[in-house]
Design a protein that fits this description.
The protein is of the alpha/beta class. It has seven helices and ten strands. It is 36% helix and 32% strand.
Length: 207
């Protein structure tokens, strides 16, 4: 556990105050964040480490990031993939690898399940396991009292049972979201931080 020591001079006496750092973890639904960036901040590419630090700065001082968990799936690739599919798959693999090597980041991959064809003839895919993996990690850290606060970047109400369990262990839940977010999720969390142009500007990649 880390503390910040503050030295105070009171009536000629030196007092040392130890302020406890809040241990926090991030839980990032990668598909949701992709959606927010694509629809609300098009053509913006973010540095993920700078992004979570900017969010912590919004919440206030005296916080230590224990770990950031990122959940996503590799894109669809057919048995005989097109060049476009292969390129998209390769780029996502490289991104996952780079994020995994970022200090205190952990990448967990789900899988895509085929769910048929839409009215326009395009295939429908659904992410599997990512919600479950996020929920398990959140509940385990809460039950072990490894964190004091959880920052969740998501918009899906499926996370509510895990959030409720974490809150019962004393964890304060921050929801970080864009314009689209389920009302029940907004109701369940303790604090809400909007993804704003200011946050994006603080973490935008130039290349």
């Amino acid at each position: 556990m880390f503390v910040i020591l503050h030295e105070l001079q009171i009536l000629g006496k030196c007092l040392i105050l130890a302020i406890r750092m809040h241990k926090i973890a991030f839980f990032i639904d990668g598909a949701y964040l992709d959606h927010v960036l694509a629809n609300e901040f098009p053509n913006k590419r973010i540095d993920y480490q700078s992004f979570i630090r900017a969010i912590v700065a919004e919440a206030g001082p005296d916080r230590e990031i224990v770990r950031a968990y990122y959940y996503h799936c590799l894109p669809y690739q057919g048995t005989h993939p097109t060049s476009e599919q292969s390129e998209r798959f390769s780029k996502m693999q490289k991104f996952f690898r780079a994020l995994q090597r970022t200090p205190r980041f952990e990448v967990s991959q789900g899988r895509l399940a085929f769910r048929g064809i839409d009215d326009k003839g395009a295939p429908i895919f659904e992410q599997k396991r990512t919600d479950l993996l996020l929920g398990i990690d959140l509940v385990l850290l809460a039950a072990r009292h490894s964190i004091d606060e959880a920052f969740i970047i998501a918009g899906d109400s499926d996370f509510i049972p895990a959030i409720h369990a974490a809150k019962s262990e004393g964890v304060v839940i921050y929801l970080v979201c864009g314009d689209t977010c389920h009302d029940d999720l907004l109701d369940e969390v303790d604090e809400r931080i909007k993804i704003t142009p200011k946050l994006i500007s603080a973490s935008t990649r130039l290349v």
